Amino acid sequence: MEFRIDRRNGVPAFQQIVQQTKQALRLGVLVPGDRLPTAKVVAEVSAVNPNTTLKAYRELEREGLVEPRPGQGTFVRRTLARPSAGTDSPLYGELVAWMSRAAGAGLEQEDVAALVASAMEKQYATGTATAATTTGSTGE
Amino acid sequence: MHAGEPALEAHGLGMRHRRGWALRDCSFRLPAGRICGLVGPNGAGKTTLLSIAAQVLEPTRGTLSLFGAAPGAADPGRTAFLAQEQPLFRGFTVAETLRLGRELNPRWDQRAAEDVVRAGDVPLDAKVGTLSGGQRTRVALALALGKRPDLLLLDEPMANLDPVARKELMGTLLGEAAERGTTVLMSTHVLAELEDLCDYLVVLSGGEVRLAGDVDELLSVHTVVTGAKEGEGLPASLAHHPLVESRFSGRQFTALIRPDGPVTGPGEADDPGLEELLLAYLRSPEAPPLITPTAQVRAQDQAYDTRTVAA
Known about the structure:
The complex is a heterodimer.
Chain A: H1 13-27, H2 39-46, H3 50-62, E1 66-69, E2 73-76, H4 90-104, H5 109-124, H6 129-135
Antiparallel strand pairs in A: 1-2
Helix pairs in contact in A: 1-3, 2-3
Chain B: E1 6-17, E2 20-31, E3 35-39, H1 46-53, E4 61-66, E5 79-82, H2 94-104, H3 110-119, H4 133-146, E6 151-155, H5 163-180, E7 183-187, H6 191-197, E8 200-205, E9 208-214, H7 215-220, E10 223-228, E11 243-249, E12 252-257, E13 268-270, H8 274-283, E14 290-291, H9 303-310
Parallel strand pairs in B: 3-7, 3-8, 5-6, 6-7, 9-14
Antiparallel strand pairs in B: 1-2, 1-4, 8-9, 10-12, 10-13, 11-12
Helix pairs in contact in B: 2-3, 2-4, 3-4, 4-5
């Protein structure tokens, strides 16, 4: 696993590492028992401050997703992948069909994004932080 | 990791050059294991501060202590200084340059130094004078890292480097810092890159410390408020918050404040970016300086001052 730290998108490197790890956990790129790259490796490959990487790992640890093992590194504890959230799930199929109807009705990509965001807001507004991270706007 | 133990502490540091004061009454603390950016306009005193920390210059006033040792008594082997002009012998080969490092430094680590050179594909038998700017910086960095320093002082290490070389060298530097917990203090003009590289900051302007502290902490105590102007100046609701900078463009106002309680009234409040925060402080010399608690020198540490005065 390698983090892609984009220095131009305004999201702090710390949040990019948290988000990309969670994304990897959702997609099954990382599974329980896997070791996250060490702060030294992230520093060398992506020129990220090691304290930033460690801070991101502490945040993931606080959420119960990873655990540090002294002298060995940081390991994945649990996955975020859900059977019903994969791209082969019925839910995904319904979404693809809906997108196709939206495009047929003449909606542009931005119109669709606005509708999805609005519906998501309505459904998950009182929900937990998970809702915020899926929209990509972490409210930290 | 390092429970806030100080790597460097400056107490009322002052330095007078022929043309006036390069540093005035600088007091701050840099905890060990941090990677600290030293920022400020040209002539702000960055190089002077680094030279004092490297024990190359003696301060006119005040003291600077390293790793809790009495001022001036720190083991010079624990500190490495990479000066801006990177003084290397142009007629030496890379291997001879490293050999010089080995002869001069009792804690020398030949393999660490060679690893840094090899990672950049710099031939060991090449003469330093024939190397590119990036390669020369890499050799200078190898010389500094081969010393196995606990405190690494870098003066504009990224100047004159192309983006690829810059990222590679910073990767090498940060990797070393990660492995050994090295404290880094580096001056730079590249504000945009600070956010990922540094977790600590010292901002100098006109020879004085304007900001010092943990980056997250510095950001979290500031708020940017933007909104539509009502009448002249900023809305009255912002008047009681300490103001760093205010700007007006047409009917819009932008104010960078250090909120003293909840921000109410018209306008939208947002967290500032690091670059935005630094620029605001550098543009507003009259804004009150801010040294966060971890960067403050403790009162009892002033004992050094009394001792030197008494002696």
